[in-house]
Design brief:
Length: 333
């Protein structure tokens, strides 16, 4: 019954979404998540342990899973059954973490895996409390071989896992707080300025972007999402493998897009770049980027006749930009 109640909101959302012509699952899950590929997933997780930005996070999740596994084994030995509160908590955490690694991603300012950290800590605490209140901290058997194996496992696996959980968890907690000012500045310097620029010069007009949050909220424009989270035509083209520069241009022109503000690197990496018919008019580059998809955004005139006016707007708006932003205006070809 509880499981049915937990699934109900997902099913209702999916049915309404399909009724409106969208997919059952949100576009963000289907476009940002991983496709089922076990080898690729585990290689990604393995290499994440050696990357400076993700090593502490991968080690933290790995340590929590190891500790959870030990608590589960401990519970089975003590309770002599696989069906107990302590065991179920560990199965839920480890199983959910493996599913997350298979279908979702890690990092990106600690937000994608934050719920796993909470779930893991809750599972460990609930499991240990359940065992402690019932049978104490003994192994639960008088068999010397089992006792020796258990103590050996604790010393060789449990203690290192506990150490790395403390170190990597502490690093994650400290960084999540220490990076807030830098990440906030990134959003203000790039995304907020983009929204302010578009609100001043293109209010109510069609604007293309691949990062639509602040642009839509602050810009008060008719945003065409070129990433596909809020545009099913783009999303279907991406999923079908036909989202290239020609398709981007066709969708933008059909939607009446005058200008586009995009991260060139994303389009170059995933779509072969934007259309050659789009006229680049200027660029903004922020310092010390951590959170934004790229440090540089490019302003394009989708309609070439709009190019000179866009340059003039960028030149006028330069005086309002924070001094830390490097602004450049592309010359007329």
């Amino acid at each position: 019954m509880l499981g049915a109640c937990a699934w109900a909101p997902i099913v209702v959302f999916g049915l309404i979404s399909v009724q409106l012509g969208w997919w059952f699952f949100p576009n963000s899950v289907l476009l940002k998540g991983n496709t089922p590929n076990s080898l690729q997933t585990w290689l990604q997780f393995y290499f994440a342990m050696f990357e400076p930005e993700t090593s502490f996070l991968a080690l933290y999740l790995l340590s929590l899973m190891v500790l959870s596994l030990l608590v589960g084994i401990w519970a089975v030995i003590q309770r002599r059954t696989w069906w107990s509160e302590a065991v179920v908590w560990q199965i839920v955490f480890i199983g959910t973490t493996l599913l997350h690694l298979q279908f979702a991603k890690l990092h990106w300012f600690f937000r994608y895996e934050a719920w796993l950290v909470v779930l893991g800590l809750l599972a460990l605490v609930r499991g240990i409390v359940s065992l402690r209140s019932g049978l104490g901290f003994n192994v639960g058997t008088k068999n010397p071989a089992v006792r020796m194996a258990w103590l050996s496992m604790l010393s060789m696996v449990g203690i290192p896992a506990l150490f790395w959980a403390g170190v990597s968890g502490g690093a994650r907690g400290w960084l999540s707080v220490a990076l807030i000012p830098r990440a906030s500045n990134n959003i203000y310097d790039q995304q907020y300025q983009m929204g302010s620029f578009l609100r001043e010069y293109y209010e109510g007009e069609g604007v293309g972007a691949n990062d639509i949050g602040a642009v839509s909220f602050f810009g008060d424009v008719r945003t065409v999402d070129l990433y596909g989270l809020a545009n099913m035509e783009v999303a279907r083209a991406r999923r079908a493998g036909r989202y290239d520069s020609r398709e981007i241009d066709r969708i933008a022109r059909r939607e009446g897009v005058k200008v586009a503000v995009v991260h060139d690197r994303w389009f170059n990496d995933h779509c072969g770049g934007v259309s050659k018919s789009w006229v680049p008019c200027g660029r903004w580059t922020i310092p010390n980027n951590y959170l934004c998809a790229d440090k540089t955004v490019t302003f394009y005139a989708v309609d070439p006749s709009e190019s000179q006016l866009l340059r003039n707007h960028l030149r006028d708006f330069e005086l309002k930009l924070p001094r830390t932003i490097q602004s450049s205006i592309d010359p007329v070809n």
